[in-house]
Amino acid sequence: MWHASPRFGHALDILSTVDMTRGLWGEVRVPVHVYHSPRDMVCDFTGSQDFVGVVPEGLATLHEVPDGVHGLLNDIPTVRDTVMLDMLKSIKLILSQKRFSSY
To answer: Who's near 101: CB < 8 A, 6+ residues apart?
Structure first.
């Protein structure tokens, strides 16, 4: 989770990392929860949909945050709090599942 505006070089590093790892997305073997707002004007929501679509079935969950924008953790307090509570709920669920109890 990033909490500040990236410098140009950092943004390029992020984009190149996404491009380099795109072919590996189908090899994810741990639960992944993606929180994204369709109103995000910085990162296209379809990128999150694409990612969740290639992660092995049952491991990825896309949480659509309709009232959010780009920085969900720096967003409107009610949106931020809702996202954080949902993240904690998801973490507790993952930890309660026997197959992931070693995490």
So the answer is: 95
pTM tops 0.90, yes or no: no
Question: With the C-alpha atoms ordered 6, 12, 15, 20, is the resulting torsion angle positive or negative?
Answer: negative
**Which tokens is 19 given?**
């491009």
Tens of pLDDT, residue by residue, the chain (103 residues): 555 566 667 666 766 777 777 777 788 888 889 999 999 888 889 989 998 998 888 889 999 998 888 888 887 888 889 999 999 998 888 888 766 545 4
